[in-house]
Amino acid sequence: MRGINERFIDDLKNGELRFFGELSIKNPDICLEIRKNYINLYYKGGNAVRITQKRDGYSFEFDARYCLNKNDDRNYEYLSSLDKRSIQDYVQAFPTILNEMDSFFLAHSKQERIYQHNLIKTNQNDLVVLDIEYAGWTRDKRLFRLDMIGVLRLEEGYKLVIFENKYGTGSIGGQAGIKKHYDDIVDILDFQPSRDELIQSVINISQNKSDLGLLNLRLNKDDIKEVEILFVIAGFNPKSKSISNAIETIKQTIPAKIIYLNPDETRIDYKRAMDLFE
After folding, report:
1. Contact status, residue 234 vs residue 166, Cβ threshold 8 Å
2. Average pLDDT, the chain
3. CA 81 to CA 74: how far, in whole Å?
């Protein structure tokens, strides 16, 4: 279950981790995401640093492979040799980490990752994107990963929204298409332990982010009134038969909607979302 404790929060706000806490508020290219006793700081969709709470402090991780395969590997050894228990090492190295990630993204563009990053940064009003890359286990012990989770403000309470993002012209049908993702999300929500853990994680994340000054929202368990799946389709022709063909094969059990956005459009107007099955 996702969430961090009061000591972790206080260190990010006022203590030895304050550099990273303030960066997540001030830098629009960085988002801080809550995990189980650790956090990830994502930079333009890539994981810049993982900070894990230990009994006697914190440990840090950066994937130094971002330094490779871009015609300039000089910082690989430096960033690989950082002391994983040294806050100061990672504070000093952080500008280098971001520069290396920028260079990597130029050589290996991940437009869908950047797009997802912009979705979470843009949608923080009536529709609040709370988390990306949410992972858990199904009834049959399969690991699942949800693109994003969030809540939509209702007249009374909130609707839990499970997002599936599709960017570009691929992945509408086939083994990683709309039907596959819909069925997988239904399996998660129909398995009560996974559903309960998901809802509690949403509550924990909202409270943790509120305490950190990242969010103006504190949810309680009774606030979640409904659940819905939302397919966000960016840069794809809504008249394509591949979409309607995929939808026709789905057995509807949980409400779902679909919204079409331009590749440069990241604000989700939920009023534009259409019933997936109509």
Report:
1. yes
2. 93
3. 13
